[in-house]
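Lab meeting, item 3. Inverse folding demo.
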């Protein structure tokens, strides 16, 4: 198992998605962020079923950078409760996983 994670986050618009993605990569919290447009989300919020068109961020990083990623998203996201979900990468092309590891911040 690697220490690479994928963090998912939906944004309300392209400008927010690009702002957060660029911040994460420029700060070296993430090696890469993909932005997927036209994601339809159907969810329950405050007792009501809601629907929204969103942009999904797919953030490639390491477990060590997760706290910084979470803080950056929370500080720059307009939602009261943004989706921030990290999942572990169990397998992947070793060279690609090594590249992700080489891009993270060093303490």
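The presenter then showed the designed sequence:
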């Amino acid at each position: 198992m690697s220490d690479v994670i994928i963090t998912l986050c939906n944004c309300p618009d392209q400008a927010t998605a690009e702002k957060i993605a660029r911040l994460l990569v420029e700060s070296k919290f993430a090696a890469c962020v993909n932005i997927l447009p036209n994601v339809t989300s159907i969810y329950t919020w405050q007792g009501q079923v809601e629907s929204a068109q969103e942009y999904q961020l797919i953030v490639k990083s390491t477990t060590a950078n997760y706290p910084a990623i979470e803080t950056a998203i929370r500080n720059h996201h307009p939602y009261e409760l943004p989706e921030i979900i990290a999942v572990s990468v169990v397998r992947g092309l070793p060279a690609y996983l090594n590249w992700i590891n080489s891009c993270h911040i060093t303490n």
